[in-house]
């Protein structure tokens, strides 16, 4: 007798040995059984088969090993079954056999034999299948040992599965109806589940974990029953709803076991058709909220929603069913209820559920934005009790939650309509919020979504708060990783390009909104965020201007009004002036940052735009600002040089200025040039300034005298530089400057400046030659080459034989 | 061998042939030696008839004082020498000689045989046909041939189910039910055990059929109990609310009807004993008497 329940199973080695012994004994008894079968000796066959089955009475094997033993005896029982079949052909009635096997003294072998004969009995149709099945499933109650009971019932399930009185099966009719078949399977399922659940209480508490693992290995034995149920043809929706599901769920709920509840719910969801789930959502979801608090309901429900949404996607006509049964409202209620009931559910679980629900909603009701918002709202409610989320897993889920609509709609504008979206973001910590913000921007970029309304922009910036400005929870900027910060800000900058609208008024509003938010960002961010804003505004200016050109009349009528209300930014009708005011303020804030060089460039950019719009005062104002910036903020000499070049370059192209303004500005610019620190810089700046007096455009200033003046001055400075070099370094500097000035001379000479004569050029060439030959001069091959190519150019021009050549003729090289 | 022994011991071979010996039902009876013998079966009020064959040993002649056949009903207890409750005699021959194979027909018509043959642990009840060839010297030649008696009884008028709740406080409470309190010998016991409370770790449960044979009376009563069957009903530990079915076919066991106070000598009673065994091999049991009867075939 081996049926004592030990304190846990023996060790693995012992297990192997026990199994081997048991298998050998099975083999031994099976041998005698076979001999009895060959001799058609029923009594002996029964005796030896009972002995063989007696080996299954062991309690020492772990479920896994027990399974091996079971399989071995299972094979042998097949032989016995064939024998029983033969025996009935020899005139032995099934009823007799059915009774005969019940004489076995031990209950386990008796029941295995009974099931085996029962199988033959049903097949013979000598008795109604339902009666036999009912008897078998009842009698199997005799085994209360969990493992042995599970295997016995699994055997019953195995031998009966092709003999159920299913609709259209050969056993239906007088054998019973599908109701009987369902009843049988349900009963077997219920009993198996009870045994399975009970398994955890067998043995010492310290091995509970191991036992749960072993138990988990047996779960398919139980789940098989559900599979059988789902395979029954006769189980239609009505029967499923009225009988099968309630009974199964009753068992699931009542067993109060974590492992079983999770597994079985999952099983139900997986094995039965989606259509049934849809029609029985109430019942199914009702059960979810009744499960044990420790059950992973979220996965179960997620799977359900997942399946339903796949089902919804399978055929469009199915969608109507979803609305008909109000799938969404039922699911969302269930989610809320489950979260309510399961007090101990970690936050991540609750969020997971919402993610699942949201995924479902997005797949099934993509057009119902209100549903989506509702889901988010429910999540907000849950989060409200929590404050900032610190749990990393929950955070991850929230990100999934928030990303889902973005991915689905591929359009941030849609998402911006979700009022609860920002509320959820508020619950994220700083870092995560930023990540989410980045995700949002990336989504915009990837999909090329244009955000076309000011209020949408407003909403968007609410979401991007952490990127655009400092808030309470955020670390100071110094703590941030420089590179990350740059990357984020560049993203924000890119975003500006997506805020656009064809309508100018709206566009202007967008700009104002954006600026409002950017300005909260602090000095470090402004450097990144404002330039694109400025260019965006400039684009608007150009568009306005084009419209004006196309619509001269409008311009005339609108101009007087604009004068009066130019300070009000919100004014419905927008003019370039207003945009420029906006620009001025924007760039001003940049120079305050301070980012003077950037501000300078932007001022100049704006000035140029104003120039294009023929707005002299505005252009002048921008230039003034540029100069002020230069004077007050730019102190680095290199930056000064660059700035001067920029100023001169821009100023040269300005045509909007009257003589007075222009003089003031050119004067200023020339003045700055002469005050540069290094002589070569001075020299270069000065000769560049010469261009201010010579504009090739039609109607441009062409003041040859002042050009010459500039060049001469440059020459003087170059000389001074040369001398300084020879004093300080003992040798003269390279003659680069002279060659450069020569090139300027040639430029003006060619462009017909009368003040530049052959003689002057001739003199300069000679000067250069002399300088180059002088001992003091440092030899520099690049300069030589520069000079040589300049000379070559002159020779080339002389040979060209047109008007220019004539002028060149006088120059000797 | 027999022949040679016969030379010294018995001068003739006596045998009894029943009239319908070939067709009569036979009962397999175990002797004390362990061997089984087949005996013809009769019931009360049967007419027992047949022939007595006496074959003298070769070349011998038997002088006798008469030949008779007796029918005994005898109750034998292991300690006393036995007691005849029935005795019938038929004279077969007047004194004379037998020198060749002689056949005597005999008949006991409608014999009252109120008690069944019984082969118990301490008690034996048997019916014997004894042929006696009377002699002065050497002693009488006696031949016994046993037959078996089974009496059927009509089905009991009232059969009640046995239903009972038993338990040990705060430990184990069960309710069991047997479909009947009276069973015929090829009956099926149907029933169930319902567990109301289980606080002990039960290993298995079985149903025993026990036979109690009591002899003597008053202070001298001797009781002998035998367990005839052990039938496992349940394997493993049940929980509250479980109900375990019982189905036991009785025909496989060597049972007799219940005998109450047979001729004031002995009684045989049957009991169902429900036994639960826990993990420490403690046994919890409840015994219930059931009445067995023999049904008309």
From TrEMBL, chain A:
One of its GO terms (biological process) is retrograde transport, endosome to Golgi. The keyword Transcription does not apply. Residues 551-571 are annotated as: Disordered. It is found in: Cytoplasm; Endosome membrane; Golgi apparatus, trans-Golgi network membrane; Prevacuolar compartment membrane. GO terms for cellular component: cytosol; endosome membrane; Golgi apparatus; late endosome; retromer, cargo-selective complex. It is a peripheral membrane protein. Signal peptide: none annotated. Residues 558-567 have a biased composition (Polar residues). It comes from the Eukaryota. Keywords: Cytoplasm, Golgi apparatus, Membrane, Protein transport, Transport. Gene3D superfamilies: Vacuolar protein sorting-associated protein 35, helical subcomplex Vps35-C. Its main location: cytoplasm. Plays a role in vesicular protein sorting. Belongs to the VPS35 family. This is Vacuolar protein sorting-associated protein 35. It comes from Ceratopteris richardii (Triangle waterfern).
Automatic annotation (TrEMBL), chain B:
PANTHER family: VACUOLAR PROTEIN SORTING 26 RELATED. This is Vacuolar protein sorting-associated protein 26. Belongs to the VPS26 family. GO terms for biological process: intracellular protein transport. GO terms for cellular component: retromer complex. Keywords: Protein transport, Transport. It comes from the Eukaryota. Pfam families: Vps26.
């Amino acid at each position: 007798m081996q049926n004592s329940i030990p304190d846990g199973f023996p060790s693995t080695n012992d297990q192997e040995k026990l199994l081997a012994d048991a298998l050998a004994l099975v083999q031994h008894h099976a041998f005698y059984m076979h001999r009895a079968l060959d001799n058609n000796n029923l009594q002996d066959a029964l005796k030896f088969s009972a002995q063989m089955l007696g080996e299954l009475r062991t309690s020492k094997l772990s479920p896994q090993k027990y399974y091996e033993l079971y399989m071995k005896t299972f094979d042998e029982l097949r032989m016995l079954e064939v024998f029983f079949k033969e025996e009935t052909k020899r005139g032995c009635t099934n009823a007799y056999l059915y009774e005969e096997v019940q004489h076995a003294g031990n209950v386990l072998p008796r029941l295995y034999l009974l099931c085996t004969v029962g199988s033959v009995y049903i097949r013979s149709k000598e008795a109604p299948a339902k009666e036999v099945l009912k008897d078998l499933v009842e009698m199997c109650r005799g085994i209360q040992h969990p493992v042995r009971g599970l295997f016995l019932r699994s055997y019953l399930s195995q031998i009966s599965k092709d003999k159920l009185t299913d609709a259209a099966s050969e056993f239906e009719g007088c054998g019973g109806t599908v109701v009987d078949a369902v009843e049988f399977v349900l009963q077997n399922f219920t009993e198996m589940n009870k045994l399975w659940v009970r398994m955890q209480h067998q043995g010492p508490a310290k091995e509970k974990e191991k036992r749960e693992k072993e138990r988990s290995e047996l779960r398919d034995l139980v789940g098989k029953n559900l599979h059988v149920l789902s395979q029954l043809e006769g189980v239609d929706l009505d029967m499923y709803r009225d009988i099968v599901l309630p009974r199964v769920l009753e068992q699931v709920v009542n067993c109060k076991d974590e492992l079983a509840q999770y597994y079985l719910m999952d099983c139900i969801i997986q094995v039965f058709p989606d259509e049934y789930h849809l029609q029985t959502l109430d019942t199914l979801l009702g059960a979810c909220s009744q499960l044990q608090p420790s059950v992973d309901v979220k996965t179960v429900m997620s799977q359900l929603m997942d399946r339903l949404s796949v089902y919804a996607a399978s055929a469009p006509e199915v969608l109507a069913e979803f609305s008909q049964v109000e799938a969404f409202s039922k699911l969302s209620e269930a989610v809320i209820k489950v979260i309510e009931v399961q007090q101990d559910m970690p936050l991540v679980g609750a969020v997971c559920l919402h993610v699942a629900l949201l995924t479902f909603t997005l797949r099934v009701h993509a057009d119902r934005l209100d549903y989506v918002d509702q889901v988010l709202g429910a999540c907000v409610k849950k989060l409200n009790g929590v404050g900032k989320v610190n749990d990393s897993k929950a955070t991850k889920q929230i990100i999934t939650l928030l990303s889902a609509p973005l991915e689905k709609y591929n359009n941030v504008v849609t998402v911006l309509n979700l009022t609860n979206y920002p509320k959820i973001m508020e619950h994220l910590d700083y870092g995560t919020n930023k990540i989410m913000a980045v995700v949002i921007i990336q989504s915009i970029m990837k999909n090329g979504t244009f955000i076309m309304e000011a209020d949408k922009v407003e909403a968007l910036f609410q979401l991007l708060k952490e990127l655009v400005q400092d808030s309470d929870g955020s670390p100071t900027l110094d703590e941030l990783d420089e590179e990350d910060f740059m990357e984020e800000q560049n993203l924000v900058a890119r975003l500006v390009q997506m805020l656009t609208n064809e309508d100018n008024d709206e566009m202007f509003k967008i700009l104002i909104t954006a600026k409002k938010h950017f300005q909260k960002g602090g000095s470090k961010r402004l450097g990144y965020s404002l330039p694109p804003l400025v260019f965006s505004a400039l684009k608007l200016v150009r568009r306005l201007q084009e419209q004006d050109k196309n619509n001269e009349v409008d311009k005339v009528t609108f101009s007087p009004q604009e004068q009066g209300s130019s300070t009000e930014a919100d004014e419905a009708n927008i003019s370039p002036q207003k945009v420029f005011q906006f620009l001025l303020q924007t760039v001003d804030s940049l120079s305050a940052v301070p980012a003077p060089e950037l501000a300078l460039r932007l001022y100049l950019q704006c000035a140029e735009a104003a120039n294009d719009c023929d707005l002299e005062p505005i252009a002048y104002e921008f230039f003034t600002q540029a100069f002020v910036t230069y004077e007050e903020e730019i102190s680095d000499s290199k930056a000064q040089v660059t700035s001067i070049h920029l100023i001169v370059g821009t100023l040269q192209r300005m045509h909007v200025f009257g003589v007075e303004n222009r003089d003031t500005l050119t004067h200023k610019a020339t003045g700055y040039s002469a005050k540069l620190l290094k002589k070569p810089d001075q020299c270069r700046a000065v000769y560049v300034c010469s261009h201010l007096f010579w504009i090739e455009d039609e109607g441009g200033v062409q003041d040859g005298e002042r050009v010459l003046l500039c060049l001469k001055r440059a020459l003087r400075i170059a000389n001074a530089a040369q001398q300084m070099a020879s004093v300080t370094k003992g040798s003269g500097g390279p003659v680069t400057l002279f060659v450069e000035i020569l090139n300027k001379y040639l430029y003006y000479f060619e462009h017909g400046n009368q003040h530049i004569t052959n003689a002057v050029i001739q003199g300069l060439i000679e000067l250069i030659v002399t300088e180059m030959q002088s001992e003091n001069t440092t030899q520099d091959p690049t300069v030589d080459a520069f000079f040589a190519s300049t000379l070559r150019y002159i020779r080339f021009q002389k040979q060209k034989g047109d008007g220019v050549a004539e002028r060149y003729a006088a120059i000797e090289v | 061998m027999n022949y040679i022994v016969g030379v010294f011991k018995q001068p003739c071979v006596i045998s009894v042939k029943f009239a319908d010996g070939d067709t009569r039902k036979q009962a397999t009876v175990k002797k004390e030696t362990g061997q089984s013998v087949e005996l013809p079966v009769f019931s009360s009020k049967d007419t027992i008839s047949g022939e007595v064959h006496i074959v003298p040993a070769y070349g011998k002649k038997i002088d006798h004082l008469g030949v008779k056949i007796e029918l005994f009903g005898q109750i034998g207890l292991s300690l006393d020498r036995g007691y005849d409750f029935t005795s019938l005699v038929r004279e077969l021959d007047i004194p004379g000689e037998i020198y060749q194979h002689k056949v005597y027909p005999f008949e006991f018509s409608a014999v009252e045989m109120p008690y069944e043959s019984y082969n118990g642990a301490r008690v034996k009840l048997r019916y014997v046909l004894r042929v006696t060839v009377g002699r002065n010297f050497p002693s009488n030649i006696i031949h016994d041939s046993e037959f078996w008696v089974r009496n059927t009884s009509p089905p009991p008028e009232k059969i009640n189910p046995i239903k009972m709740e038993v338990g040990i406080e705060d430990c184990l409470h069960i309710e069991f039910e047997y479909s009947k309190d009276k069973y015929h010998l090829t009956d099926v016991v149907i029933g169930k055990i319902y567990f109301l409370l289980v606080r002990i770790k039960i290993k298995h449960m079985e149903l025993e059929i026990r036979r109690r044979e009591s002899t003597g009376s008053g202070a001298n009563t001797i009781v002998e109990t035998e367990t005839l069957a052990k039938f496992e009903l349940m394997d493993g530990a049940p929980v509250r609310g479980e109900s375990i079915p019982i189905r036991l076919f009785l025909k496989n066991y060597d049972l007799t009807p219940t005998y109450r106070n047979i001729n004031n000598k002995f009684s045989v009673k049957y009991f169902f004993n429900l036994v639960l065994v826990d993990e420490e091999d403690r046994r919890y049991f409840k015994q219930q008497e059931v009445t067995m009867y023999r049904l008309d075939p």
